[in-house]
């Protein structure tokens, strides 16, 4: 593990003293649970550049074949079998102690809720793969019910209410983020006294702006990521290492068992 001063022991005292901790998580915390990222060395798009079309709303709406491939990909999505890791459990511990003000996540896998974080604390800025939405009438429902239709032979299941196109309730490329969700995330960042960024490159806006927003509001900033980020220079502490090893030590959990 590579760390910049101060030490983990010092950061642990910040956690102990904090009353409003906000955590931002990205793909890095989920890769340790076996969910690949998109652009990393073993990323989905790195291995198959054509797969990027499945996450582009323009291709998805225009091409039924892309939608059929997308539904097959959803059937095999690792989120259905992935288990939370020690990093997820450490964040649950922060909530158990009454210190977690908000958990902002760029992930769509639902592992934070599966680990035990309450849905009220989790702000999913890119949506969730666990729900499905109609692009025409806005109907929403559980993903697994629609996947059952795919398993039964519907290669591109339409909306049961209006016949429109269904997709996972996630933000694809070309789709606008939900303003209310982003506003909530940025407001939470501004209310933090300790902001911990975990497993994100902090290159995707507007949510990357949560880091300077927290810093400008007076929060201490801790960044834990495998690679350098654009905001390492303004952070109070930066750590490189396995999230499942470092984050429990920051939180002060001797042994964390994933659920």
* CATH architecture descriptor of the largest domain: 3-Layer(aba) Sandwich
Q: Indicate the CATH class of the largest domain.
A: Alpha Beta
The averaged pLDDT comes out at: 91
Work out the helix count. 11
Main beta-sheet strand count, sense and barrel state = 7 strands, mixed
Question: What's the quick description here?
Answer:
The chain has 259 residues and is an alpha/beta fold. 35% of the residues lie in helices and 18% in strands. The protein has two domains: 1-35 and 83-126 and 176-259, Rossmann fold (3-Layer(aba) Sandwich); 45-81 and 127-170, SIR2/SIRT2 'Small Domain'.
Explain what this protein looks like in three dimensions.
α1 crosses α11, α6 packs parallel to α11 and α9 runs parallel beside α10. It is built from eleven helices and ten strands. The protein has two domains: 163 residues, Rossmann fold (3-Layer(aba) Sandwich), CATH 3.40.50.1220; 81 residues, SIR2/SIRT2 'Small Domain' (2-Layer Sandwich). The strands form two sheets. It has a seven-stranded mixed sheet, with helices on both faces. The chain has a three-stranded antiparallel sheet with strand order 6-5-7. The longest helix is centred in the first third of the chain and has 12 residues. The relative contact order is 0.21. The chain is an alpha/beta fold and 259 residues long.
Notable characteristics:
SIR2/SIRT2 'Small Domain'; 259 residues; 10 strands; disordered C terminus; 11 helices; 18% strand; seven-stranded mixed sheet; 2 domains; elongated; alpha/beta; three-stranded antiparallel sheet
């Amino acid at each position: 593990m590579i760390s910049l001063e101060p030490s983990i022991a010092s950061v642990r005292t910040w956690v102990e003293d904090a009353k409003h901790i906000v955590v931002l998580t990205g793909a890095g915390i989920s890769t340790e649970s076996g969910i690949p990222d998109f652009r990393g060395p073993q990323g989905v798009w790195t291995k198959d550049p054509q797969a990027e079309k499945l996450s582009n709303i323009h291709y998805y709406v225009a091409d039924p074949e892309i939608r059929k491939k997308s539904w097959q990909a959803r059937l095999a999505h690792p989120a259905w079998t992935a288990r939370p890791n020690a990093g997820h459990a450490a964040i649950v511990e922060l909530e158990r102690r009454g210190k977690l003000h908000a958990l902002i996540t760029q992930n769509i896998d639902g592992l934070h809720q599966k680990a035990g974080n309450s849905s009220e604390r989790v702000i999913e800025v890119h949506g969730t793969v666990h729900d499905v939405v109609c692009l025409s009438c806005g109907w929403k429902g559980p993903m697994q019910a629609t996947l059952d239709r795919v398993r039964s032979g519907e290669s591109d299941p339409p909306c049961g209410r209006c016949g429109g196109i269904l997709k996972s309730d996630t933000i694809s490329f070309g789709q606008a983020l939900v303003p209310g969700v982003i506003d909530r995330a940025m407001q939470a960042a501004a209310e933090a006294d300790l902001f911990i960024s975990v497993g994100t490159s902090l290159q995707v806006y507007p949510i990357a702006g949560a880091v300077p927003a927290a810093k400008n509001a007076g929060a201490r900033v801790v960044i834990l990521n495998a690679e350098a980020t654009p905001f390492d220079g303004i952070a109070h502490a930066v750590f490189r290492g396995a999230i499942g090893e470092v984050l429990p030590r920051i939180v002060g959990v001797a042994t964390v068992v994933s659920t």
